[in-house]
Structures are given as structure tokens and as C-alpha cells.
Write a structure and sequence with these properties.
- Chain B: It comes from Phytohabitans suffuscus.
- Chain B: This is Acetoin:2,6-dichlorophenolindophenol oxidoreductase subunit alpha.
- Chain B: Keywords: Oxidoreductase, Thiamine pyrophosphate.
- Chain B: It holds the Pfam family E1_dh.
- The structure holds two protein chains of two kinds.
- Chain A is an alpha/beta fold.
- Chain A folds into two domains: about 1-190, Rossmann fold, CATH 3.40.50.970; about 195-335, Rossmann fold (3-Layer(aba) Sandwich), CATH 3.40.50.920.
- Chain A has eleven helices and 14 strands.
- In chain A, the strands form three sheets. Chain A has a seven-stranded mixed sheet with strand order 3-2-4-5-7-6-12, with helices on both faces. In chain A, strands 9-11-10-13-14 form a five-stranded mixed sheet, with helices on both faces. In chain A, strands 1-8 form a two-stranded antiparallel sheet.
- In chain A, helix 1 (about 5-20) runs parallel beside helix 5 and helix 3 runs parallel beside helix 4 (about 90-95).
- In chain A, about 55% of the residues are buried.
- Chain B contains eleven helices and seven strands.
- Chain B has helices spanning about 1-15, 30-40, 55-60, 65-70, 105-120, 135-150, 170, 195-210, 240-245, 250-260, 265-290, and strands at about 45-50, 125-130, 155-160, 160-165, 165, 190, 215-220.
- In chain B, the strands form two sheets. Chain B has a five-stranded parallel sheet with strand order 1-2-3-7-6, sandwiched between helices.
- In chain B, strand 4 (about 160-165) and strand 5 form a beta hairpin.
- Chain B is globular.
- The chains are: A alpha/beta, B alpha/beta.
- Bound molecules: thiamine diphosphate and magnesium ion.
- Magnesium ion binds near residues 130, 131, 132 and 163 of chain B.
Chain lengths: ~350, ~300
């Protein structure tokens, strides 16, 4: 086990995967010579050379598509999308092509591809470089989607994704790249896709979080003291129903914390599934803590309020535990928006 | 041009001091193009530009106050502080919200031109974009569409040699991007983008052609990015001597030489002008720094209009 930053854990996962399997390669803008805009490919060009570590033109459709094609021919490409918004210009190749090849070939053409994209707000990059856009991908059958929350999951989910036989999108919370954490590398460090982790035990409420909201939820949970169980969902598709249901069976309450705007968020899926499957175990209505339905604002103070803060989560959980009712989000409490 | 250069220096200082958060993309070295464009367009024309847009915004007539306030996230900024450096806009001067997705402005400019053509208006759309944008699908689709529909649009590639940390030759098989016009059977014209007179002449012709209904032109202005790509980038990837060679052709120096040679201004005139620009910038910086941030309610404004 070593202490490393999340971006170093990603570089370590890529390096270990490339050492293990000669078909693994990396594409992306400034990933080779510059070692990644967020330094997630440090050392890779030097070790693996320009055939396997390639700088691309600003041609997301071109290089994601090339990764799809290479994958159909037995390579295991990892395509890096600098900011997830840029996947917009390449979406066809991922959701309409890569995700359907297995289905459309009787299982004979597979696409063992990984698309990594940085996501999320908190760094002042403005509306078009700060969104958390999981919902672009989660409704696509054939695609797996995972989100790391620390160095270990950044390493482990990426290793699992590269070994996976199907296209996997790894959405990396950008604010976490510089965070340090303990990380086990090698086979023991692999985090299987589809497994959630209970990162804090409690018996009063299950808080399901993902990516950067895991640490925010943990911060709020610490302030509230015992009782709050925090589950790091880790994989959005396929998500770990068993772990979430088992937790809710213990706590009787469910809160989902999401970084993205409320409408169409993945938390609705969790709340709906848990409500249907465990209705009688619930002691209070499940609910979601999300960003409001607005684009990410630039101003620092506004951006800080946009995604759920530890203060907001703490307030909501406290009110929910005390009253058994679903509290209003800050913008309704403050009369700022409906 | 002098104002734009000093403005960019100021943004850089404010960023280094932590008074601006997020990121910024400076246009030092590329001012001649911004100024030439503004001089060749009418207020009724429309411009789509990029995240490297402080210069074009100022050249088109947005005030230092409005642009700086936006970059500093103030309520008095052109979008009330929700946009920031990458998203400047002001329809009064013809500037669409600047594009932070590479290449996204090209089809939109074609569409603006389509509106002008359809309504028979004497207006032109211009899109400024970088050399790196010439490799994205939107570039090719927009040029083809504009060519086949003969749209009144001018595509202006600001070829500053780099796309982020990649030199053009690493990502692009040709460095004379104007030649790509040939694939769409439209004129492609290179110009020394450090030279205002030359740039104006080429733009004037392209704009006139568009206005006359003769269709689009691809102009390639050869410029150089004096700063790094964004905020902390020190641009250590440049070959030795390259920046220094380009700095010898600094558009500000060239313009000064030209103004003095033609007698359009005296050295004293220029000194006085420069002093006034600096004093104004200092005053506006102080004013803007003291302005309030937007209220939380601002983030809920203008998400959508009334439902039809
Ligand atoms: C579709 C898309 N891909 C990648 C980026 C990230 N990015 C922002 S600027 C930039 C370089 C653009 O280079 P160029 O077009 O030459 O313009 P310049 O920055 O030199 O003005 C890149 C890759 C982006 N904003 N949009
Ligand atoms: Mg460029």
C-alpha cells in the first residue's frame, strides 16, 4: 500500500494494465508528451512509447471512434476525454456504436473499451467545463458506468474497467485528482465493477453517495455523529442493489446525494428501486439531495452553493432524522427559487 | 490593441493573486486580428468566438468594466458573474456567448448567416476559431454547409501554432490551414495576423464577398500565442527561440512603427494614449474589485424563458 494522489493512482492503474496486457493503449489530447492535462498519464509515454500512448488532434469523435474500432479488433484502448462535456461531440461512437455491437453481432463483436472523462464542479471552470453528466450515459444498455471517489477506487475501478469485456465509462471527479489517499495496487487493489462499499457504518439512515459527494457526505456524517451510514455506490451501471438494500434494511431510511441537477438524475433510479423493493422496511420517505436544475454558475460563491455542500447535507439529514419528513432544499428554504 | 494587451496582463496578475478563480486563456500576440475584425464589421454583424475571447470582446466595444467584472465573477459582469472568462457575450456589439467547446462556434455562425440570408438582410456572420479547431468535425461540416448554401459567413482561423500543449505539426498534417478551403470549393486566404493593415485588407474582401452573396471564405491569420494555453501553463514545450522570434513581430510594435511611419500619430500621441489606457485600467480594476458578488438567486435566472 502506498499513499498517492488520485491522478497518480490513475497513472499507476494505466501503467499496471499496460504492463499486464500488451493490447492496452491510451489515446487523448495531450496525454502523451504533456503527460495529461491533469497529469493522469505521468511516465506512460516514456515507458510504453508512442505506439501505445498517443496524443490526438482535437477530434473526439475521431479518436473515440478509433478506440471503438481498435477494440473490435482485440485492442483494449483507453480514451481520455479531458472534460466530459467534450464527449458530446463523440457520443454516437460510444452510445450508439460501441454499446450495441455485442447485441448486434450475436455476442461475436465485443468492444473492450474504456472511456475516461473528468467531471464535476468546484474549480471555477464555468458552465461548459463543470458539469456532472452521468445521465448522458446511464440510460444506455450495453454501457457500464463507474465513478471513483478516492485513490483506491480510482485505481481499482480503472483496472477492472480495462479488464472488462464491454465498454465502460469512468467518470473522474476533477476536484479529486490532487487528493491523496492510501492505495493498494496490483490485483488486490482491483475494485470489481458493480460493487458498492459501505464506507461508514450507522443504523439511522443510509446515505448513498458517489464520486466527490462521498467525502462531502462523510464530512456531514461526522458532524452528525453516529447513525449515518454512508454507501459509496462506485458503479452506476450496473449498480449494487444488494448492498444498498441490505443497508436500507438495517436503517429504514434512504437519502441519495447527487452532484448534478435534480431532474433525470441517477438517484431517482435508486430511490424508485428501493421504494419498490423495500417499501415496508422504510420508516420515512426516501429522498434526494441534489444540485438545483440550473447550469453550473461561474462565480465562486455561487458554484460552492450549486452542488450539495457538507453544510447542506448536514442540515438536510438532521431535519430528516428529527422530523421524519423530507426537508426543502436551500433554494426553497431561502425563498430563492421554487 | 494596447488596451487588450494591458488588460491581459492585468487578468494574469489578478489570477496570480487569487482574485480570479478557475481559468483564463490570454490572447497576447493575437490582438491584431481581434482589432482588424472589429474594424471591418458593422454593429449589425454577428461574431462567434472562443474562450480566448477577452480581446475580441473589447475590440468589438464591450467595456473593460463589463468584461473584467465578468471575469472576476461580479454581479455587474456581462452575464452577471455566472459565465466567467470563457463565456463573454454582448448582443449589443454583436458578440454571441463565446464558445468553450472547440469548434462549436462554426456551425452556429453558419446558422446566424442562414438567418440573414433567409430574411434577405445585409448582415454577415463571422466565426473566429483556433488552429486546433480545424481538426474537429464541426469545422468540416460547417464549411461544407456554408459553401453549398452560399451563406454570408466568414470563417477566421486564428492559427497561433498551438492547440493547448500540442504544436500544430503533431496533430495536423498541414500547417497552412487555409488550404482546407479547397475541399469545400471556397476561397482560402492566408494572412499575416500580426499586421493590422494586411489583416484588415483580407478580412474586408472576405466580408464584402459574404455581403455580396458570393458565399463563405476561410481566412487563416498566422499569429502566435505569447502566453501559455491557460492560467499556470508556462509553455515549456516550445522549441527554443520560437517565442523570441515571434516577439520580434509583436503586433503592438508593428502597429506602432506603422503609425509613426505614416504620420498617423506622433510618439507623444502614443505615449499619451498609452498612459490614458493604463490609468483607466487601474481605475476600473479598483472599481470592479470592490463590486458585489451576485446573489444566489442569480443562478436561477435565465435558465429558460416563459413557456410558449
Ligand atoms: C471539443 C473540445 N475538445 C477539447 C477541448 C479542450 N481544449 C480547450 S482549448 C483547446 C485547444 C484549442 O486550440 P486552438 O483551436 O488552436 O485554439 P487556441 O486555444 O490556440 O486559441 C483544447 C484542446 C475543448 N474545449 N473542446
Ligand atoms: Mg491554437
Amino acid at each position: 500500500m502506498a499513499r498517492m494522489r488520485v491522478r497518480q493512482a490513475i497513472a499507476a492503474a494505466l501503467a499496471d494494465a499496460m504492463r499486464e496486457d500488451g493490447s492496452v493503449m491510451l489515446f487523448g489530447e495531450d496525454v502523451a508528451a504533456a503527460e495529461g492535462p491533469f497529469k493522469t498519464s505521468e511516465g506512460l509515454l516514456a515507458e510504453f512509447g508512442p505506439l501505445r500512448v498517443r496524443d490526438t488532434p482535437i477530434s473526439e469523435m475521431g479518436f473515440v471512434g478509433a478506440a471503438v474500432g481498435a477494440a473490435t479488433m482485440g485492442m483494449r484502448p483507453v480514451a481520455e476525454i479531458m472534460f466530459m462535456e467534450f464527449l458530446g461531440v463523440a457520443l454516437d461512437q460510444l452510445v450508439t456504436e460501441a454499446a450495441t455491437f455485442r447485441y448486434l453481432s450475436n455476442g461475436r463483436v465485443t468492444v473492450p473499451l474504456v472511456v475516461r472523462a473528468s467531471t464535476g464542479s468546484g474549480l471555477g471552470f464555468g458552465t461548459q467545463h463543470s458539469q456532472t453528466l452521468e445521465n448522458w450515459l446511464t440510460a444506455t444498455p450495453g454501457l457500464k458506468v463507474a465513478v471513483p471517489s478516492d485513490a483506491q477506487t480510482a485505481y481499482g475501478l480503472l483496472r477492472a474497467a480495462i479488464r472488462d469485456p464491454d465498454p465502460v465509462a469512468i467518470l473522474e471527479p476533477r476536484v479529486l485528482y490532487a487528493e491523496r489517499g492510501d492505495c493498494v495496487t496490483g490485483d488486490e487493489g482491483i475494485v470489481p465493477l458493480g460493487t458498492a462499499r459501505v464506507v461508514r457504518r450507522g443504523d439511522a439512515v443510509t446515505v448513498v453517495a458517489l464520486g466527490q459527494t462521498v467525502r462531502t457526505a462523510l464530512g456531514a456524517a461526522e458532524r452528525l455523529g453516529t447513525g449515518v451510514e454512508v454507501v459509496d455506490l462506485s458503479t452506476l451501471v450496473p449498480w449494487d442493489r444488494a448492498t444498498v438494500l441490505a443497508s436500507v434494511a438495517r436503517t429504514g431510511r434512504l437519502v441519495v446525494v447527487e452532484e448534478a441537477p435534480a431532474s433525470g438524475g441517477w438517484g431517482s433510479e435508486i430511490v424508485a428501486a428501493v421504494t419498490s423493493a423495500a417499501f415496508r422496511a422504510l420508516q420515512a420517505p426516501p429522498f434526494r439531495i441534489t444540485a438545483p436544475d440550473v447550469p453550473v454558475p461561474y462565480n465562486k460563491g455561487l458554484e460552492a452553493r450549486f452542488s450539495p455542500s457538507a453544510d447542506e447535507i448536514e442540515y438536510q439529514l438532521r431535519a430528516y432524522l428529527e422530523t421524519g419528513e423530507v426537508p426543502d432544499p436551500w433554494w426553497r428554504r431561502e425563498g430563492v427559487a421554487a | 490593441m494596447y488596451e487588450i494587451r494591458r488588460f491581459e496582463d492585468r487578468v494574469n496578475e489578478l489570477f496570480a493573486r487569487g482574485a480570479i478563480h478557475g481559468t483564463t486563456h490570454l490572447c497576447a500576440g493575437q490582438e491584431a486580428l481581434d482589432v482588424s475584425l472589429a474594424l471591418e464589421l458593422r454593429p449589425t454583424d454577428t461574431v462567434s468566438a472562443t474562450y480566448r475571447g477577452h480581446g475580441i470582446a473589447l475590440a468589438l466595444g464591450m467595456t473593460v468594466h463589463s468584461v473584467l467584472a465578468e471575469i472576476m465573477g461580479k454581479a455587474a459582469g456581462c452575464t452577471g458573474g455566472v459565465g466567467g472568462s470563457m463565456h463573454l457575450s454582448d448582443p449589443d456589439v454583436g458578440l454571441l456567448p463565446t464558445f468553450a467547446i472547440v469548434g462549436a462556434g462554426l456551425p452556429v455562425a453558419a446558422g446566424a448567416a442562414l438567418a440573414f440570408q433567409t430574411r434577405g438582410e445585409d448582415r454577415v456572420a463571422v466565426c473566429v476559431f483556433g488552429d486546433g479547431a480545424a481538426n474537429i468535425g464541426a469545422f468540416h461540416e460547417a464549411l461544407n454547409l456554408a459553401a453549398v448554401w452560399k451563406l454570408p459567413v466568414v470563417f477566421v482561423c486564428d492559427n497561433n501554432v498551438y492547440a493547448e500543449y500540442s504544436r500544430i505539426d503533431v496533430t495536423t498534417p498541414l500547417s497552412d490551414l487555409y488550404r482546407r478551403a479547397g475541399s469545400y470549393d471556397i476561397p482560402g486566404v492566408p494572412v499575416d495576423g500580426m499586421d493590422v493593415a494586411a489583416t484588415r485588407a483580407v478580412l474586408a474582401e472576405a466580408v464584402a464577398r459574404a455581403r455580396a452573396g458570393a458565399g463563405p471564405t476561410l481566412v487563416e491569420a498566422k499569429t502566435y500565442r505569447f502566453a501559455g494555453h491557460s492560467r499556470a501553463d508556462q509553455a515549456t514545450y516550445r522549441p527554443a527561440g520560437e517565442l523570441e522570434r515571434w516577439r520580434e513581430r509583436d503586433p503592438l510594435t508593428l502597429a506602432r512603427v506603422e503609425l509613426l511611419a505614416t504620420g498617423a500619430a506622433t510618439a507623444d500621441d502614443l505615449t499619451a494614449l498609452e498612459k490614458a489606457v493604463r490609468e483607466d485600467l487601474d481605475a476600473v480594476t479598483d472599481t470592479v474589485a470592490a463590486l458585489p458578488d451576485p446573489e444566489p438567486a442569480t443562478m436561477f435566472h435565465n435558465v429558460r424563458g416563459a413557456t410558449a
